[in-house]
Design goal:
Strand order of the largest sheet: 1-2
Largest sheet: 2 strands, antiparallel
Order of helices and strands: EEEE
Number of helices: 0
Number of domains: 1
Strand content: 15-25%
Structural class: mainly beta
Amino acid sequence: MEDKKEIKCKCPYCDASIEEKESPICQVCKIRIIRCVECGNLVSSNIEKCPKCGAQV
């Protein structure tokens, strides 16, 4: 039986580890992080376009 590993990500602004949820909040810098629907990049919920691919977030 395979072990399920917990997926963790790093805040793109301060590199702190965050648990990936639907809309996680970085506990260090207090920024709400969302995932771009086009490229999957982690971005702040305060921006309008993904800096990686330019898609609306």
